[in-house]
Amino acid sequence: MAITKYPAKHNAAKVAANLGLSEGLVYLKGDILKERHDTDVELTFRQESNFYYLTGFAEHDAHVIYNLKTQKLTLLPYRLPDDHIMWMGMPPTEAELLAKYDVDEIVWSTDLVSAINNSGASTLYALHESDVPKDISLKANTDLLKEAIVNARLYKSAYEIEVMRKINHISSNAHVALMKAAKNCQSEVELDALFRYETARFGARAQAYEPIVGVGVNAATLHYGRNSASFNGNYDQLCLVDAGAELGCYASDITRTFPLNGKYAGDAKTLYSIVLDMQKAVLSALKPGVQWEDMHRLAAKISVEGLQKAGLLKAEFTVQEMLEKHVAAVCFPHGLGHGIGLDVHDVGGYPIGVQRIQEPGIRYLRMRRQLEAGFVVTVEPGIYFTKFILDEAKSNAEISKYFNWDVVERFSKLGGVRIEDCVVITETGIDNLTIAPKEMAEIEAIMA
Ligand SMILES: [Mn+2]
User: Fold this and answer.
1) Cβ atoms within 10 A of the Cβ of 222, count?
2) Are residues 119 and 179 in the same domain?
């Protein structure tokens, strides 16, 4: 499918159907351009995700109105003052904007209040009180719109899935470029810079989040972002790269972990196999109707089985007992994955009324839902040796007894392994958008 004009009217109709109202205006305020502290240096602009969903418009200081009765979508771009044109360039004309965006009408932002007041509607539906424009004659309602948008964004359209496939391919190829370059690099920052370059040159200049590049024990810090450590000539280390670029505001989120020297060996090979088994077990179980927390528990079970087989957990205890005591959360302390879309940690993880499970590890799960076709989620199991968590486990008599601490000590220098893909839930299973290789033999062949 060719990626053409962003289907803003299709998205607006989905939101309107969720609202189920016969009249009123849906109103969203786009993000404003900000400057660094007390200077005129502009910060990188990124459109607010809900606004993008209703417009496909990525420029600053704009507004959008959707009339629920007439189904007319009006984009209100920022009216650039004449004396700013020499700095910002000639703004597009109304006709150019109508040709480029899937909207019915262009009104300049300076006419926002009159466009609202002359609409004939009685209520303005907005996300936040602070968004509601001053001097409007309509009632404002900020209670209903958020859920209507969340429940639209949760189910990705064919168009959205194709954009996400494209950005997953761009980011996957960048991961491969890093694997190829690693043995000729000296530090994490070179890989960080290479990822940005390899995604930007294929059309994705923005990152969905700041890349994480951690070698050795740095991989054990889940959101490590310094990316500045030297390899110190040690190419036996594992390198964890969690990085994904953004395309048209749609995120990718991919993690690969590879040895800098291109050969999985010894404990690194053992550890990697366990995490890969965790991910494969989940990927084969995913389909509509599956409860997301059950997938987290499945990954936790595979991790305990693997760690016991590898000698990190004692052989005399049953897997069942260790799972009941939350032993899995010591080395797999985060949630299995999350929804992804316009935001890397996308909206709709917890439906209204659903609470977090207050148990180690699984309490950090970013989603508790029964999966449905059209959801896009990440599957990102990991095993880490985080000193702070291990020290706590060691000093807890209830937990400590399950571990062979000398073996844990030996594995600790590996830091950690995470493997992460983005997948679409389909009617029958999944469509994996991520194409970066993850079998050890494939990665070794690329790095040879
Ligand atoms: Mn992720």
Assistant:
1) 17
2) no
